[in-house]
Amino acid sequence: MFLLAFFALITERIVGYPDWLFRRIGHPVTWIGALISRLDRDLNRESDDFSTRKRKGVYALLALLGITILLGLVIEYDLRMIPFGPILLVLIAASLPAQKSLETHVEAVATALRYGGLDAGRKAVSKIVGRDPEKLDEAAVCRAAIESLAENFSDGVVAPAFWMGIGGLAGGVGYKAANTADSMIGHKLPRYEAFGWAAARFDDLINLPASRLSALLFVVAAGFIDHASPGNAIRAIRRDARHHRSPNAGWPEAAMAGALGIALAGPRSYGGQMIEARFMGEGGRSELTYDDIRRALKLARVADALLIGLFGLLAWIIWQV
After folding, report:
1. Mean of the pLDDT values across residues 90-98?
2. I need a surface site. Which of 36, 80, 183, 251 has the fewest CB within 10 A?
3. 285 - beta bridge partners?
4. What's residue 276's pLDDT?
5. Do 270 and 144 form a contact (C-beta atoms < 8 A)?
6. 241-250: per-residue pLDDT in tens?
């Protein structure tokens, strides 16, 4: 299991998910999204009362997990039985983590700020965060990009690899299905407050181990980066992580903020509404520039290398046993 996750991480780190392949066949997330949309249309009826819609949301999540996990089990079993099947299995598994695309999108924000100014930076960051870009100054654009990097490193890289290590392709696909469901229907909007309850709560649960592991990886990675502090990262986690609106996102965000000596999170605007939030890395420097995005990317790259090394070590230990 961890061997599959190890090779999937290496493969995705090198080649990513090619654009030409996405244009031809889409991506597992788009296929999962289509299934979620169908379940939403069929089960989430506004004529039903709150408890009925909540119960149907549970049914939808169970159906989604059942279909995707079963499909993952069948694919993995069949591919292990044919010549070159393990290679195909690794290529399929490599579509689940998103190291390369995450780095590309965050790097694009730093590049846009440096060469195109604030308007270009706002446009670039609007592709990876949901807050109102026109209300962001340069420091806020940088904070948004770094926060997205920290949070998505956890749920877009570490979590799918972790569950792949635990449950093989089925574990990785099942995680991706649940995480996609949370992003699509796990919102506190009138339509999804009841129907998306199960998806949101389940996503919180399955992201718990990855968020803690991500924070630990950032702490260790800080020891390999100039002008970064593992000790400050630990102090920021202990002080700030629990104050985040998310039970999981605060861990990697606080770790990154503390490691780099910067302040992340804080108040932000979504859909014209100001959301009050506590700073992660409180007391850290808040006037950020594109150089801080690049420092955060360097920290994330080292953490990613540590993750790959950890999974390789676990695979070797299991192989020896």
Report:
1. 95
2. 80
3. 262
4. 66
5. no
6. 998 888 899 9
